[in-house]
Specification:
- The chain is an alpha/beta fold.
- The strands form four sheets. It has a nine-stranded mixed β-sheet with strand order 7-6-3-10-11-12-13-14-15, with helices on both faces. It has a four-stranded mixed β-sheet with strand order 5-4-8-9.
- Helix 13 packs across helix 14.
- The longest helix has 27 residues.
- The radius of gyration is 21 Å and the shape is globular.
- The relative contact order is 0.12.
- The N terminus is likely disordered.
């Protein structure tokens, strides 16, 4: 394990691993923001030559921002979750920057390193991952990084997890598995991480992200997808990502839903199609619908539709990651409520009314967090703040907010979501 100065507190302190609410696995990087007169075509962005040209002259720290799973981590910490990351942060200037930002946000860090004595297969294993973000000044973005170019996995020397990493995974309440982790780690490492967390009764939150589209064309990823879905308690996806997960059969062949009609892309149809897979055991499937809000489906048939507060959008990068933080908070709150009911009544079943209310509060907070992030340009440290989220929720109290997509935010849910946020922040302060 590397030793750093002036860095984020480590999960391992005097051989003791701290208990946290949520751990994210991998996908830690530094975004390098670059203005571009024009955005190059996709084919150019995905070449080693273009990446090398960008990396040759990296601008000053003023153009740097933390990216990847840092978007989720910062949003989650700001709404009161005790967060940690297990990922690849090296002893270079970018790693120092990443750790400094995470320290300022109160996020614990565990460096995922190759085992001692391993001869490194590639020198870039010793480098913090960079993602170049090209912006044209008119709201368009393009990304160029090793994630898109390979060779995969990016960290081939980390085939197993060390004892401290497994201990950290066993000491958390939830683990977020993002699709980008499949770019970094081999399938064995991901399998071990998920199993250790699951065996310790941690909730597994799976967000495939843009990598959802790779599962249909990569046999290895399709197999690990099955294993992650067989453990995941919550699946989060956009409509397009959910469609990518279900639009192919187990052999990777195209699968037509609802005869190819428009109904095939309805959130409910997609959720049901995902549950038809025998290996999908998710309790919740959450379909993110952008500015229209989100829909949450439970395995036992509940459907919760919540709109999104109307805001002036500055940037949509990081909105989904931010909303996911509130979903995790809600999941843990409901799990705790069930455990309390079991200890008091001998049954963990909540009444349907209470469960629906808690799900509505969760989804309302999630859409408000996502909308608050959209109001600020860029992600990283520019994701939602608790103050801005409260402001958006307060505007929904006292009236029914109807968004353009037809979903609504009820006054009651907005008020309760604010209470959930405030309670979480108080708990967070006590933990810190």
């Amino acid at each position: 394990m590397h030793i750093f100065t002036n860095c984020a507190p480590d999960l391992l302190i005097d051989n003791h691993v701290e208990k946290v609410d949520v751990v994210v696995l991998g996908n830690l990087c530094v975004d390098i923001l670059l203005p571009a007169a024009t955005i190059p075509p996709e084919v150019a962005l995905k070449t080693e030559t273009f990446l090398s040209s960008l990396a040759a002259e990296v601008p000053s720290e003023q153009s740097w921002e933390v990216g990847g799973n840092c978007n989720f981590l910062i949003a989650a910490s700001r709404i009161g979750l005790r967060c940690a990351c297990i990922g690849h942060i090296c002893d270079d200037k970018y790693g120092s920057f990443l750790r400094k930002v995470l320290a300022e946000e109160g996020i614990l860090v565990h460096h995922l390193a190759p085992p001692k004595g391993v001869v490194l297969a590639r020198s870039d294993t010793l480098q913090t991952l960079l993602c170049f973000v090209l912006t044209d000044g008119f709201g368009k973005h393009a990304f160029c990084s090793r994630y898109d170019i390979g060779p995969w996995p990016l960290l081939p020397d980390i085939g197993q997890l060390d004892y401290t990493t497994e201990l950290a995974l066993s000491m958390c309440s939830a683990v977020v598995v993002n699709g980008f982790v499949f770019d970094e780690l081999g399938t064995a490492a991901v399998q071990i991480a998920v199993k250790v967390a699951k065996d310790s009764d941690a909730g597994i939150i799976f967000d495939p992200g843009p990598r959802a589209f790779s599962f249909s064309i990569d046999n290895d990823r399709r197999e690990i997808l099955k294993q992650v879905l067989s453990a995941a308690n919550v699946v989060l996806a956009t409509v397009d990502e959910a469609a990518a997960l279900v639009d192919f059969d187990d052999m990777g062949l195209p699968l037509k839903l609802a005869d190819g009609s428009e109904n095939a892309r309805l959130p409910k149809v997609l959720a049901q199609a995902l549950w038809t897979r025998p290996y999908c055991v998710a309790e919740w499937i959450v379909i993110k619908c952008g500015p229209d809000g989100a829909v949450l489906f439970t395995r036992d048939g509940l459907e919760i539709f919540v709109g999104s507060p109307s805001v002036d959008v500055a940037d949509t990068v990081g909105c989904g990651d931010s909303a996911a933080a509130a979903i995790v908070l809600g999941y843990l709150n409901i799990k705790k409520a069930r455990q309390q009911a079991r200890s008091e009544k001998g049954s963990e079943d909540l009444s349907k009314e209470i469960l629906v209310h808690m799900l509505e509060e969760t989804l309302t907070l999630a859409t408000a967090v996502g909308a608050a992030t959209a109001m600020r340009a860029g992600a990283g440290r520019n994701v939602a703040t608790a103050k801005l989220v409260r402001t958006l929720l307060s505007k929904c109290i006292g009236s029914v907010h109807q968004d353009p997509g037809g979903f609504a935010i009820s006054s009651r849910a907005a008020e309760q979501a604010m209470h959930v946020l405030d309670s979480s922040l108080r708990t967070h302060l006590r933990k810190r």
